[in-house]
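Researcher: Please translate sequence to structure tokens.
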Amino acid sequence: MSKKQKRWGKQKKLAILQEASQEGVLVTCRKHEVSTATFYNWKKVYDTYGEAGFRQNGSADRDYRKLEEENRRLKKLLVEKELALEVQRERLKKKFGASDLRKLW
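Model: Translation complete:
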């Protein structure tokens, strides 16, 4: 016998999160038949996006993944720029000497 998957509305999720903060996670999850993994996923979404995270199913996760990907790309670009600047500084040191470089900066 397969278990019917439940759909939780925004208000119900918020009520469960509020109740868990007062009565405890395990008690609340058992009472509402919600797995703790699901509860903590809701909590992560709520902590990250607030109530807006519950508007569309999965939209918060997609937005979060997009932001993580953009952050990863920006970090990579920053590292590449820093590496290029370091190489440029080394070349200038070889060309002009370390004491002359202090005059340039």
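Researcher: Any highlights?
Model: The longest helix spans residues 59-96.
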